[in-house]
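Students often ask why we bother encoding 3D structure as a string. The short answer is that it lets us treat folding as translation between two languages. Here is a chain of 199 residues written in the first language.
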Amino acid sequence: MALQGQKGSSAGEMRASTVDDHIYHVYGTTETVLTKPSDTSTQRYDTLVLMAETGTWRVKPGDQKAREINSAATNATTDVFTIVSHGYVDGAGPFRLVEDNTLPTGLSDGDVVYINVIDDDTFTLALTSGGDAIDISDVGTSTNTITGMTATVAKPTASDTDGVGSVPLGEGVILTMQAPDKITVKSYTATSVLTYWWV
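And here it is in the second language, the structure alphabet:
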């Protein structure tokens, strides 16, 4: 299939002119937020596929605003976490837990979780989107972090200097994941090309 580019929705982004497929290309070093298509009347777009045509890319899956779980704002009786104006949507994820200090018992460093929103300030954590709240038996200590790391790739190493939750996508590598509402990508060089599509 021959692809002919036309202007996309953000700088450095081109959309392939196809009838049914949402196939896009991103060029250069500009950090670009990819947004899930909104025309879901005929297609659900459950999966996002990223393919690094050239260069190395940084992918920041999920909601990239890191939030801290504070032991003082955690309730081990109700399994509820409080973060004022947390900004999560119900069922959001996958996210990874990072044990900066000590996580509540029932949670472990690197666990992949989803968000069950109670209100603007409170939520519980689940192992699946819309699943039952994870039972915690204590509040842990100090603060720990929830990051937008996808469940399909390894946890970043300490040498990862491109930010919490970002992962490398090298040339010729394809990454498939449950489609997030938004995802951030960035390359190292102006000649890098990333192709992505929603299915």
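Translate back mentally: The chain has two domains: 5-58+167-198, 67-147. Keep this in mind for the problem set.
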